[in-house]
Each structure stands twice: as C-alpha cells, then as structure tokens.
Amino acid sequence: MAIISHIPQHVAIIMDGNGRWAKERSLSRLEGHRAGTENIRRVIDTFVRYGVKYLTLYAFSTENWSRPKSEVSGLFRLLGEVIKRESQALHERGVHIRHLGTMNGLSPRLVHQVQQAIELTSNNTSITLSLAFNYGGRAEIIGAVRRIAAAGIAPEKIDENIFSDYLYTNGLPDPDLIIRTGGELRLSNFLLWQAAYSEYYATPTYWPDFNEVDIENALMAYSQRQRRFGGLRPDQKFQGSVPD
Ligand code: IPE
Ligand code: IPE
Ligand code: MG
Q1: Contact indicator for 38, 78 with CB cutoff of 8 Å
Q2: Pocket test for ligand 2, best of 61, 179, 191, 210 (most atoms within 8 A of CB)
Q3: Is 175 exposed, middle or buried (0-12, 13-18, 19+ CB in 10 A)?
Q4: What would the mean pLDDT of 93-118 be, rounded to a whole number?
C-alpha cells in the first residue's frame, strides 16, 4: 500500500468503459458489464484498506434506459446477482449498503433484493457503500423540490442544509473525490448538487481493469490538490493590504 497524506472521506466513482473493454476483446457488451461487476468487490476492499469511509458507485443512470432493451435487462439482472451474491460477504466486512435513485421501473425481485441488502447491513459502520442506480442528478433535485413542497415547508425556511436533507444522499457528506474511468471528462448527471466542491480525477482505464494501482494514483493525485472552497490558500491570506 502506498503512503497517502490526505485520504478523502468520500469517494464517488463513475464506473465507465465496460462496453469498450468488451469491444477490444471481441466480447459482447454484456460480457463487459459482467467483468465490470466482478471488479466491484476488489475495488471496495482496496478503499476499505485505505480508510475511506464513504464509497459511492454509479452503476446505472436514468439516461441509460435509452440503451437497447436487452442491455438494460441484462444490466439489472447482473446488478441483482451481485447484490444477492455479495451482500453477505459485504455484511461480514461491516459494509453499510445504501441505494441512491428510485425504484421506478425496476422488477419487484430486484427491489426486494436491494431492500434485503439494505436491511441486513443497516447497522454496519466500517464503510458506507452507496449504489447509485436508476439515478439521475436532475431527477434527484426535482424529487427534493417536490418533497419539500409536499411537506409544506415555508420558502424562507429552505436553505442548503434543509435542501440536502431531501436528496437521496441525506446524511452522506459531499464527495471529496469523484473518479471517472473510461476517459470521458463529464459528470453524466451524477451528484450534480453534491459535486459542487469535489475534486475530479479521470483515468483512461476501463472499469473492468481499474485496479489497486489506479486507485493509488487517484488517491495520490487527490492528496496533492489544494482545496480552497472559494477562499484563499493559507500562504496567500495575509499578503497585501485590505482596503477598509
Ligand atoms: C459503464 O459502461 C456502465 C454503464 C453505463 C451502465 P458503458 O456501458 O457505458 O461502457 P462504454 O462507455 O460503452 O465503454
Ligand atoms: C455514465 O456512463 C453512467 C454510468 C457509469 C452509470 P455513460 O456511459 O452512461 O455516460 P455517457 O453517455 O458517456 O455520458
Ligand atoms: Mg459509457
């Protein structure tokens, strides 16, 4: 393990590149997705070892419904298999599983599998694993607005804290680091509100190949960043005179 000076509390990953990984090997896209799901446990274990307390994985966006029906159903089947196969092992490692997104359009079987995994692991504290699927950042914001309106909260009472309480991520700290595999430089509707001050790291590595070395590189890059949140660097703070 590499020595990293600043470990992010919350890492969120856009797991992209399964299709291109498969294409390079003349495999079907679904075989790429299968290889991608097989990588999930390895990645969780590595982040647990580095002491990351919150890990969020983007697995299926609201826009991914526009893919061919067979790919969509295959993706959800794989997701169900992973949740069923891994939840006991994750539970034994103290992983607390959450879901970010809605259950709209999902099969009752998958909904049941997800609810079971959430219930089983609800008291665990070693790491919080949030699975973002059937997730869209804009849909999340609209949902929050609707729930706030339905709760009858007075407009002047609405502030950033209250708004955050109505998002799927209620109770989670904002991501410190957002990693995207597969080389694209975009958010693709991921955590739009929460990403306001996140650090970004993109790697050309396709998700099924994303391994411990890539994780170390991402953590090392993060630890060298200077986060300012709109303020000044400590060494700039007392330079020059401030007009009255
Ligand atoms: C990421 O891989 C998984 C999902 C978006 C569901 P892709 O399927 O987007 O892979 P590429 O981008 O086509 O390589
Ligand atoms: C982003 O990947 C969504 C997930 C990884 C779940 P996409 O492959 O859907 O993103 P775009 O279409 O390239 O923006
Ligand atoms: Mg993609």
Answers
A1: no
A2: 61
A3: buried
A4: 97
Q: Is 16 a catalytic residue?
A: yes
pLDDT at 215 over 90: yes
Is the minimum distance from the CB of 16 to ligand 2 under 6 angstroms? yes
74 Cβ closer than 6 Å to some ligand 1 atom: no
Identify the band that residue 241 occupies on the pLDDT scale cut at 50, 70 and 90.
low
What whole-number distance in Å separates Cα of residue 125 and Cα of residue 128? 7
Sign for the CA dihedral angle at 187, 189, 190, 193 comes to positive
Say whether pLDDT at 130 is over 80.
yes
- In DSSP notation, 171-220 reads TPPPPSEEEE-SS----TTSSTTTTTT-EEEE-SS-GGG--HHHHHHHHH
Confidence of residue 244 (pLDDT cuts 50, 70, 90): low
Neighbouring C-beta atoms of residue 66, cutoff 10 Å: 8
> Is-catalytic flag, 64?
yes
> Position 17: which residue type?
G
Residue 242: the pLDDT is 59
pLDDT at 208 over 90: yes
Helix spans in the chain (H) = 18-24, 29-49, 69-92, 108-120, 137-150, 160-165, 212-223
Share of the chain above pLDDT 70, in %: 97
- pTM over 0.85, yes/no: yes
Domain ranges of the chain: 13-223
**Residue the block writes with tokens 């950042």:** 137
Spell out the CATH class of 13-223. Answer: alpha beta
